[in-house]
Structure formats: structure tokens, C-alpha cells
From TrEMBL:
InterPro entries: Glycg_phsphrylas, Glyco_trans_35, Pyridoxal_P_attach_site. The modification N6-(pyridoxal phosphate)lysine is found at residue 670. Its cofactor is pyridoxal 5'-phosphate. It comes from Agarivorans albus MKT 106. PANTHER family: GLYCOGEN PHOSPHORYLASE, MALTODEXTRIN PHOSPHORYLASE. It catalyses: [(1->4)-alpha-D-glucosyl](n) + phosphate = [(1->4)-alpha-D-glucosyl](n-1) + alpha-D-glucose 1-phosphate. Phosphorylase is an important allosteric enzyme in carbohydrate metabolism. Enzymes from different sources differ in their regulatory mechanisms and in their natural substrates. However, all known phosphorylases share catalytic and structural properties. Allosteric enzyme that catalyzes the rate-limiting step in glycogen catabolism, the phosphorolytic cleavage of glycogen to produce glucose-1-phosphate, and plays a central role in maintaining cellular and organismal glucose homeostasis. It comes from the Bacteria. GO terms for biological process: glycogen catabolic process. This is Alpha-1,4 glucan phosphorylase.
Length: 824
């Protein structure tokens, strides 16, 4: 493709005609069709191929520059990468979106229709995976050497359908017809051992060493997805591993008539990368999850070492060349795996290998929930990874005898408390402890969360090593979450503050001075309404529910979990509905509550909450008595592509987790960037958003973290709130009737029981009154559209801090110590 590079940047300036010629060429030579016969799928693949001519060239140049400079690189290990669609994002980052749009129009095609052919690359569950996607985008944009490592899931999480109000899980076959953005790299296939036993042998020199005799081998096949930085100066790689059987077909068994058995090894091996987070309620599920984690860690480490050995003959420089970031505890098994490789395969002594590990690994903690801090049964480790268990035992022994004994001499209780091995009926390996003991840095993801990590989660470890604990507040990429998903607002900012804001988000502050300007307010709110109209059309298409774009759109989109408190919003909806039934003239503006969420397949209460939201929606949305003042929508199969429509359209961003439980949140940042106002608790990054936008431009309710701790310490009794608030009692009792489930009384009662008999662990009832009271203030504010416009503009213009570019620079400064590498 003829390509003229712009002088100001490395983006590629292509004319409409050049891009049109490239699309037609690929339609014929790559897709094997022509303009008259091609369907939209072929047009999309041809468009991607045209973009890839530019992307792959920059990828090659980036790889070459990093290899020549032997640069220190970060290797980001994450079990999730919630990438979403790449077509629009890549076209914007390469700088050809306008040319592509106009070229397709000349060819009789709409760019939006063509891009809608792309399935979501849904290789994640929620915030953790989307954060990883933002981070690798920013690493490329900032020209830092980096590789993302994960799993090439065949089915991602799951495709959510709603049938009769209930969540139904279906396979998410995101690459059923291929993915034009990925490249298979068979030259980098890795072998991964499993099971077997460990033998102690003595060499001729009399030295003891361990030999792991694996009982089984599986192959890891790498698929590379280019990660295009903004302006396409750097294109890094996301390498995802697909599992295959080492010997996947048994001819002898097949010829003897065992047609199914001949492929059993193939099926078992492929199950490892079949689906994200297989249900681990069964023993087989637990074993598969552990194998899954080890598989991608082992493949990634072998790949890192292979690349290192290109320029180095020993491991003396390894920790200077490679930093490995563990995104949560899922990749923790990489620690004993690197120790095993260094000692058993490379011949290093323990102290040297341990020194390398301690200087190489860093750990990001994403949760304060004890049940979310992974623990694996010792017997499972012994079965699947026997050598790794030996190494973990030795790490633990040395830690307790050297570090803990020195700090707390003779204190056996402290040793039990801090041991990586948790004693009990079933002995467990505490993966978070292994991370903190090994890693040279442990970081939280918001200022408040990082303090709680030190004070509540790992206080003794913090006492041992205070210098290891740092904070890096999360951020989101403005390229996807404003430039690509809200083109109208992006163009308005281009005209107001210039075009550098996608790289320097703080420049949006220049728009804040127009917050009182009537014309600016009018334009800003017109864009918001346009986005609400688009979302209303989508809601009708997906859910069959008509909503008014003039109503206040209240949006709660995040993984379904009790601590995120979707059921608190549901109780508020029931209270509003009850008020309207009692008084049809009840003073409130029209409101729409929009939910988007997936519940883990084995999480019964979470699935019950989805069912309750849908049954309440059925009743509320079809009740003429309330005159359309209240609507409830649950949007099925929440994913990145749906999020790109929800964030620009939201008026109110519901961030209502119990204070002290949400590590950060990133949806709160995306909503604020697109001009929504936060209604939330003093939790996670809400605290820092409040600091940036000002108390008068955010709605805070409920107990703060200290008050939550105090209430729990005093002995929280949810029944006191149940009997103390007649409205709350009435809506909870409603759930036990058949009002919302005709003929089936009590179908929604599990929510009430969890809040009363279950003890209300996340203090929903304690915060209910504050929540409903603050919502009245939100309603009043929204009906003053001039005031609301000012607040919305200030929110959008004031959240430059929450750029993932800033997060990455903080990681580089506080943890990774990288240098930029500029490809030629």
C-alpha cells in the first residue's frame, strides 16, 4: 500500500482512494471474492487486512528495535485481557479512520455496519481484564517495551442470554470464523509438563539435584495480537497461548476401532484453553483451573527466557532485562516455575535463583476479599505440580526461619499466621502470601485500596518490608473510552482544547472554564442526548423496552457480586415503585435504571439478583399506573462493545459498593470522562474522583470505611434496620409475595433471606436510607438542566488523572524502571 507518513507524527496518512484500493485488493486476493458478491463479513476482513498492512510493518520495526537495543521490558501476566473489538480502535490509532470511513462509503458500505461484524475479543470477566487491555494500549502508546501474556481461550467467559428472566450461559465462540488481527507463531511453541513424580539424584560431583519426571506433556501454541499504540509509533504484542496435545492422535487405537478414545488426549489438552474460569465447584474443575494457570505461566516464562538467551549466555543480567508483573494472584505459580527452571534446568544454586526471582517479580493486588485471595489445596499441588510444591515448601521454610524468626523471635503463632502453607483440615497454599514474600513490589490500585492492603490485608508483611508496598491508581485509555466511543464529544474537545488530549488528558481541564457557558452547555448536552437516543434504540432492539432519552439514565454495569450491591439499587427501585403506586403524583422526574452484568455460573445469589431485576422490570415497565416515570432495563451479555454505548449515554454512574471492598473500579472513570455524575460510596477510586471533581460535583452516600469497620466491630444486626424503616421492611416483604412472580410466591425471597438470616455481610440495609435520600438530591439536580450541564462538564474535564498513560508512567517510575524505545 502506498503510504505517506505525516510529518508531525508517525501516524500513516492515507487518502480515501488509497484505502479504497487496498480494501478492494484484499477483498479479492485475501478474501477470494469481489465487490458484487462480498457479504459484510468479507468487507470487514478486507478492511482489517488493509489496516494490517500498516500495523504489521510497525510491529516488525518495533520488535527489531527492541532486539537491537536489548531493552529492559515488562512482561504483563494476566489470566484476563478484555480487549473488545479492535477494528475502530486500531484505525484511530493508526490514523486512518477517516480514510476508511470515506473509502467504504464510496464503495457503498457504512463503516459502522462493517465494524459491527467483529465479535468481541471477550477474554476476560470484568475490571481486571479491561484494565489489562488499557495498560497494554498505554505501554505501546508510550513506547515502552512490553509483552502481554495470557490464554487464547476458545470461548472466553460465556455469552449471556436471559430466558424467563434468568441468566443462561452459552459458549462465546469469538473466533468461530477466524480473527484477522491475530497471527499464529508455531516457531515459538512450548512444551509444558504436568503430573508425574520427583526423583532425587546425585551427579558425579556428588551434588544433589531434583528431576521431575512428568506424567504428561501438553503444547502451548502462541497467537500474537498486535497492540497498536496511539499514532502507531510502537506496536507491541499480546501473546496468547492455546493448549494442544503433544501427541494428539493415536493411530493404533483408532485402527483398533477406538474412534473416540483415539482423540481423548487431544480433548483433555484442549480443555485447558477452552474457557475462561471453568466452574471450580467440582474437583475436576479445581484441577483444570490450576493446570490452566500453570500452563500459561510455564509457556510465558519459557518464552521470556528464550528471548533473553538471544543476547545473554548466563542469567546474571536476567532481572535487569526482565520484569514480570503478576496481575492478581492467578499467575503466582510463575514464581516456583522460574525457581524450578533456574535450579533444575539451568543449574543455579538456590540463593542465586532466589535473588533473581525476588528482583524479577512484582505483584498487583486487586481485591481485599479473603475469598478472592486464591488458595490451592496442597494435595492438588502434589498431584499436578509435585516439584513446585517442594519449592514452595522450601521458600516458606526459609521465610519463616530467616525473616519471621528474626522479626518475631520464638513467636510460633506469628509463623502460623504468616506461613505460605495454611494449616487446617485441608492444607492450603496461600498464593497471595507467596506473591508478597517473593515480589520486590506489591501495589494496590487506588490510594485508599493501597492503604487497606497495608493496614488490613498484609499488615505484618508491611511491617517486615514497608519499602515494598506502593500505590498505582488505575486509569483508562481515553483513545477507546472517549475518542473511539464518543466521536461527537471528542470532536467538541478537539475544537475547544486542541487535538493533543488523547495523549495528554489533563488538557481537558481547559474545557472546564466553559462549564457556565450557555452555548457550550447546550452543545455538550445535545451530544449526551444523541448518545441516549442511540442507547434507547439499542435497548428496544435487545430488550423490547421503550425508554425516553429525556429520562435520567442511571447505569450500573459491572460484574454481579454482593459487595458491588446491585441489590441495593434494586431495593431503591422497589421503593420508588411503591411510592408511585401509593401516590401517582409523587414528585420525581422520569428515571431509567439500566443494569449490565454477568454472574459467575456457580454463584446462585448473584443469579437470583439478575432474575429479581428482570421480574421487577417486567412488572414496572408494564404498569400504566406509574405513567412511565420509572423504567428498569437489564441488558443481556454485557461486554466491551455494549459498554461503548453505555458509558457515553449515562447520566448517573452508580458506584455503590460497600466502602472498603472495591479496590478501584474503572467504570467510574469512564462514566465521568463521558460526562456522567457519580453517585457512590467513599470506596476505591471514588475517593480520588471526588478530590478531582470537587464535593459539589459528585453525590456521596453511605458509611465510609472506618464507619463500616466500627459497625461490624460493634455487632451489626440487619434486623434493626428492617424493623426501623417501614419502607425498607415493606419492599423486602414484597420479595416474598408473588406480586412480581404470579403463581410462584417466594421466588425472589433469597435476596431478603441473604440480607436478614444471612447477616447482610455487605451492609445493604445499613446504607439503604442514605442511598434513597441522596437519590432524591440527584433527581432534583437533574431537573435543573443548566446546573446539571455544568456539573457534567466539570466531571468530564477534571478526570485527566485517570488516564492509563499516567498509571503506566507511575508503574515505570515506582516499579518497572523501563526506558522508552523508539522504532525507526
Amino acid at each position: 500500500m502506498a503510504a505517506k507518513k505525516a510529518k508531525a507524527t508517525n501516524t500513516v496518512a492515507l487518502s480515501k482512494d488509497q484505502f479504497k484500493d487496498a480494501i478492494v485488493k484484499h477483498l479479492r486476493s485475501t478474501c477470494g471474492t469481489d465487490e458484487a458478491r462480498a457479504n459484510n463479513q468479507a468487507w470487514w476482513k478486507a478492511t482489517c487486512a488493509a489496516v494490517n498492512e500498516l500495523v504489521f510493518e510497525r510491529l516488525t520495526e518495533t520488535s527489531k528495535a527492541n532486539a537491537e537495543k536489548d531493552s529492559r521490558a515488562v512482561h504483563y501476566l494476566s489470566l484476563e485481557f478484555l480487549m473488545g473489538r479492535l477494528t475502530v480502535n486500531n484505525m484511530h490509532n493508526v490514523g486512518v479512520f477517516g480514510a476508511a470511513r470515506d473509502a467504504l462509503a464510496d464503495l457503498g458500505k457504512d463503516v459502522n455496519d462493517i465494524c459491527d461484524e467483529e465479535p468481541d475479543m471477550a477474554l476476560g470477566n470484568g475490571g481486571l481484564g479491561r484494565l489489562a487491555a488499557c495498560f497494554i494500549d498505554s505501554l505501546a502508546t508510550l513506547n515502552y517495551p512490553a509483552v502481554g501474556y495470557g490464554i487464547h481461550y476458545e470461548h472466553g467467559l460465556f455469552r449471556q442470554e436471559i430466558q424467563g428472566g434468568r441468566q443462561i450461559e452459552r459458549p462465546d465462540s469469538w473466533r468461530e470464523y477466524g480473527n484477522p488481527w491475530e497471527i499464529c507463531r508455531p516457531e515459538s511453541i512450548q512444551e509444558v509438563p504436568l503430573y508425574g513424580y520427583v526423583e532425587t539424584v546425585f551427579g558425579e560431583d556428588g551434588k544433589m539435584r531434583k528431576v521431575w519426571h512428568a506424567g504428561r506433556q501438553i503444547k502451548g501454541v502462541p497467537w500474537d495480537i498486535p497492540v497498536v499504540g496511539y499514532e502507531a509509533k510502537t506496536v507491541n504484542v499480546l501473546r496468547l497461548w492455546e493448549s494442544k496435545a503433544a501427541d494428539f492422535f493415536d493411530w493404533d487405537v483408532f485402527n483398533a476401532g477406538g474412534y473416540i478414545d483415539s482423540q481423548s488426549e487431544k480433548s483433555q489438552a484442549e480443555a485447558v484453553s477452552k474457557v475462561l474460569y471453568p466452574n471450580d465447584e467440582s474437583e475436576a474443575g479445581k484441577e483444570l483451573r490450576l493446570i490452566q494457570q500453570y500452563f500459561f505461566c510455564a509457556c510465558s516464562l519459557k518464552d521470556i527466557i528464550r528471548r533473553y538467551k538471544r543476547n545473554h549466555s548466563d542469567f546474571s543480567q536476567f532481572s535487569k532485562q526482565a520484569v514480570i508483573q503478576l496481575n492478581d494472584t492467578h499467575p503466582t505459580v510463575a514464581i516456583p516455575e522460574l525457581m524450578r527452571i533456574l535450579i533444575d534446568e539451568e543449574g543455579l544454586v538456590w540463593d542465586d535463583a532466589w535473588a533473581i526471582c525476588k528482583e524479577t517479580f512484582a505483584y498487583t493486588n486487586h481485591t481485599l476479599l479473603p475469598e478472592a485471595l486464591e488458595k490451592w489445596a496442597v494435595y492438588l499441588f502434589e498431584k499436578v505440580l509435585p516439584r513446585h510444591l517442594e519449592i514452595i515448601y522450601e521458600i516458606n521454610r526459609r521465610f519463616l526461619e530467616d525473616e519471621v524468626e528474626a522479626k518475631w523471635p520464638g513467636n510460633d503463632e506469628m509463623k502460623r499466621h504468616l506461613s505460605i502453607i495454611e494449616e487446617g483440615e485441608t492444607r492450603m497454599v496461600r498464593m497471595a502470601f507467596l506473591c508478597v514474600v517473593t515480589c520486590f513490589k506489591t501495589n494496590g490500585v487506588a490510594a485508599m485500596h493501597s492503604e487497606l492492603v497495608k493496614e488490613d490485608l498484609f499488615p505484618e508483611f508491611y511491617e517486615l518490608w514497608p519499602e515494598r508496598f506502593v500505590n498505582v491508581t488505575n486509569g483508562v485509555t481515553p483513545r477507546r473510552w472517549l475518542l473511539a466511543c464518543n466521536e461527537q464529544l471528542a470532536n467538541m474537545y478537539n475544537e475547544t482544547v486542541g487535538t493533543d488530549w488523547p495523549l495528554k488528558l489533563d488538557e481537558l481541564k481547559g474545557a472546564a472554564k466553559f462549564a457556565d457557558d450557555a452555548k457550550f452547555q447546550k452543545n455538550f448536552m445535545a451530544i449526551k442526548r444523541e448518545k441516549k437516543v442511540e442507547l434507547a434504540d439499542k435497548i428496544e432492539e435487545l430488550c423490547g423496552i421503550k425508554v425516553s432519552p429525556d429520562a435520567m439514565f442511571n447505569v450500573l454495569i459491572k460484574r454481579l457480586h454482593e459487595y458491588k450491591r446491585q441489590h441495593l439499587a434494586l431495593l431503591h427501585i422497589l421503593a420508588l415503585y411503591r411510592r408511585l403506586l401509593e401516590n401517582p403524583d409523587y414528585d420525581m422526574g422520569p428515571q431509567v435504571f439500566i443494569f449490565g452484568s454477568k454472574a459467575a455460573p456457580g454463584y446462585k445469589l448473584a443469579k437470583d439478583i439478575i432474575y429479581a431485576i428482570n421480574k421487577v422490570a417486567d412488572k414496572v415497565n408494564n404498569d400504566p399506573r406509574i405513567k412511565d416515570k420509572l423504567k428498569v432495563v437489564f441488558m443481556p451479555n454485557y461486554r466491551v462493545t455494549l459498554a461503548e454505548k453505555l458509558f457515553p449515554a449515562g447520566d448517573v454512574s452508580l458506584q455503590i459498593s460497600t466502602a472498603g471492598y472495591e479496590a478501584s473500579g474503572t467504570g467510574n472513570m469512564k462514566f465521568a470522562l463521558n460526562g456522567a455524575l457519580t453517585l457512590g460510596t467513599m470506596d476505591g477510586a471514588n475517593v480520588e474522583i471526588r478530590e478531582e471533581v470537587g464535593d459539589e460535583n459528585i453525590f456521596i452516600f453511605g458509611m465510609d470505611c472506618d464507619e463500616v469497620k466500627a459497625l461490624k466491630a460493634a455487632g451489626y444486626n440487619p434486623w434493626d434496620y428492617y424493623y426501623g424503616n417501614p419502607e425498607l421492611k415493606a419492599v423486602l416483604d414484597w420479595l416474598e409475595t408473588d406480586f412480581f412472580t404470579p403463581g410462584a410466591p417466594g421466588e425472589l425471597a433469597s435476596i431478603k433471606h441473604s440480607l436478614l438470616e444471612g447477616g447482610d455481610p455487605y451492609l445493604v440495609l445499613a446504607d439503604f436510607e442514605s442511598f434513597t435520600t441522596q437519590y432524591t438530591a440527584v433527581d432534583v439536580a437533574y431537573r435543573d438542566q443548566k446546573k446539571w450541564a455544568k456539573m457534567a462538564i466539570i466531571n468530564s474535564a477534571s478526570v485527566g488523572k485517570f488516564n492509563s498513560d499516567r498509571s503506566i508512567e507511575d508503574y515505570v517510575d515506582r516499579i518497572w524502571k523501563l526506558e522508552k524505545v523508539m522504532p525507526n
